[in-house]
Write a structure and sequence with these properties.
There is one protein chain. The chain is an alpha+beta fold. The chain is about 30% helix and about 25% strand. A four-stranded antiparallel beta sheet has the order 1-2-3-4, covered by helices on one side. The longest helix has 15 residues. The termini are far apart.
């Protein structure tokens, strides 16, 4: 662990470690996607106590992921200093933001489906008057 301040952004290594801990602790496999992994900031009021305890190196991450097989989303709190998931929350009825790889998959699917433009012709879309 490097000497980092609790409010420093996550490093690339910390992001990779957070994902690895979630995968390990909750059997997150190939059908899963991570929507985000970000710093879980300590409350400002807690910083003096952390400094007094010499615990400024404690770092946590929040990870949001979902299983593409069933569409269920989850939020994890990961202790980077303890190397464990400390909280796992199911987010029923919620779906995380679309990821870049999903945009690419949609683009590939649309380009491979040559019939889709014909379905839109004549629809009179305001953004495509000639369609």
């Amino acid at each position: 662990m490097t000497d980092s301040h609790p409010l420093d952004p996550l490093t690339a290594d910390e992001i990779w470690r957070a994902a690895a801990v979630v995968r390990r602790d909750h059997s997150v496999g190939e059908t899963w996607r991570f929507a985000s992994i970000e710093l879980k900031e300590p409350a400002k009021a807690d910083l003096p106590a952390l400094a007094a305890e010499g615990d400024l190196a404690r770092r946590e991450a929040l990870a949001v992921c979902w299983n593409r097989a069933d569409g269920e989303a989850y939020r994890a709190t990961v202790s980077l200093t303890g190397n464990e998931v400390t909280h796992w929350e199911h987010l029923p009825g919620q779906h995380p933001n679309m990821t870049v790889d999903e945009w690419h998959e949609c683009d590939e699917m649309l380009r491979a489906t040559r019939t889709w433009p014909a379905r839109w012709r004549g629809a009179g879309s305001p953004t495509c008057p000639g369609c």
